[in-house]
């Protein structure tokens, strides 16, 4: 069923009482919060979506909308019922975790999961909380420390929404769970066994325009969510039926698009990029974990389940946690380089393990070694092959030890200090 909450959100965000309540939260943004400035005005946003908005209203003001978008000058696009610039709270997340993977043959092994540049909504606001409001152009160089001056841009007052969801709750909730998460028919993650090797969460305010337009029947109106972090590009459209329209007369958009909204301008963004090493790269498990993470937020009602019990006040206390970092290139690169070293270590350990196993088999004579060209003395040839393998294994082991030392020495200082503080006092 198509939902009307985003359309209602535009009403709410334009009400003076909402402006006052959100403006009170502005001064409460933690200094770690950074914001991406609006790249264009609301007039540019109206010109950008005018052709689509006109088509949804029996092509009213279509020529004006077409001319305003592609020619400029005195062309006038269709005007929205209302439009409001909004700063939507979001988190970007990097994490490396370990967990037990249970298999149907009752084997259990440790796997490592790497979550790179994940997107987590900072608030549950229907469509705004369900779609990943970032693309490849969103990078740390775009963001600046949040300040009061950012509440007025391009001649418009910006509504700043408070944080009510914290990504720091995700792993702690999973660890406290008594459930397992299925990867496929034969394998399941044991969520209670999750161990965090590193976790960094970056709070970022995403610039958006919310615009409401009239619509042709059977719809009552449409709400446009326009991303404003760079030149006009991607936007989302959610349609609303009149509240008294019978269910059988409603248009089921999900039946045709798979969503209760339409996305235009570019492909949708994923909430997560996940790599599972067990210890080799497990493509199937990686895809399934990514899908599971995506489902936490993209399903209707999903973000609401993650709202902190104490709302904005509860999330505010998390901001002082050392795992919450400013979204700068320096902070992000130090974490990701450290995680990349972790991936290399896991894979190199597997190489050394396999080489050692082959070496032992050769020494016991339980594996046949074929040499070309055949040596005149098979025994000497086997000894040379074994010695060569030993030398190669030792070189890989030395490489592993150096990499482990480098990772130990280059751990971000804030994480090293947190781990030290977490150790039981003697």
- Helicity level: 25-40%
Task: Assess the beta-strand content as a share of residues.
Answer: 15-25%
Provide the gyration radius in Å.
27 Å
Return residue spans where pLDDT drops below 50 for at least 5 consecutive residues.
1-7, 16-21
H/I helix tally: 12
- Reading the helices and strands in chain order gives HHEHHEEHEEEEHEEEEHEEHHHHH
Report the major sheet. Answer: 11 strands, mixed
Mean pLDDT: 81
How does the overall form come out from the CA principal axes?
elongated
Task: Tell me the structural class.
Answer: alpha+beta
Distance between the ends: 59 Å
The beta-strand count equals: 13
List keywords for this structure.
alpha+beta, 11-stranded mixed beta sheet, 426 residues, disordered N terminus, 12 helices
